[in-house]
Amino acid sequence: MAHPLPGPLAHLEPLLGHYGYWAVAGVILVEDFGVPIPGEAILIAAGVFAGAGRLDIVAVALIAFVAAVMGDNIGYLIGRYGGRALVHRWGRYVFLTPERFARAEAFFARHGGKIVTVARFVDGLRQVNGIVAGTTGMPWRRFLAFNALGAALWVGLWATLAYAAGDHITEIYTAVSRYQRWVPAGLGVLVAAVVARHLLRRRRRRRTERP
């Protein structure tokens, strides 16, 4: 199959055709420390390439996972040691405005470490995930654990779907993206339910402990 990339993925054909695995590694790595380039699209395109026999799907998945984790950890270091001043000074060059960064930071503060995993699936949060975790002072080991889990789920989902779906991946991606906006809201409801349950249990425990 000479041209396996359908629809909006077609513009990635020359990049993947010429650089192969290096394109997957480079684009995902750079996207994950704040640069708004199509990391998710290159992963999907590479999966379609693999389904057409032009790349190996296991290699695509492993390279994408390593690049995603490394990119987010570079972002974490930028946020941890550069802080907000660095982000506010240079962020505009990669479209990371102070307003966009403030919204992402507030979202992280509300939802804690679990958002590091979920952010991998939300465009906008995916690019600033590591930077915000670093500026908010999240412990590195905690960040690494949630980040690796998110990267594994993200790579596993899109690489598998793209490999299996082939030319139909455009329709699938459009359908999934349509519901991405509900991911943060769903996470918020889940967190609120967990907090409410915890508070109710603590109140009941206090009542039983009273003489």
Characterise this structure:
This protein has helices at 13-19, 21-31, 39-51, 57-90, 98-111, 114-119, 125-135, 140-165, 169-178, 182-209. Helix 2 packs antiparallel against helix 3 (39-51) and helix 3 packs antiparallel against helix 4 (57-90). It is mainly α. It is globular, with a radius of gyration of 19 Å. The protein starts with 12 loop residues before the first helix and ends with a helix. The model has no long low-confidence stretch (mean pLDDT 76). 76% of the residues lie in helices and 0% in strands.
Write the layout of secondary structure elements.
Layout: H1 13-19, H2 21-31, H3 39-51, H4 57-90, H5 98-111, H6 114-119, H7 125-135, H8 140-165, H9 169-178, H10 182-209
Overall helicity: over 70%
Mind describing the biggest β-sheet?
A: none
Distance between the amino and carboxyl termini: 77 Å
- Global outline: globular
Question: How is this structure best summarized?
Answer:
With 211 residues, the chain is mainly α.
List keywords for this structure.
10 helices; 211 residues; mainly alpha; 0% strand
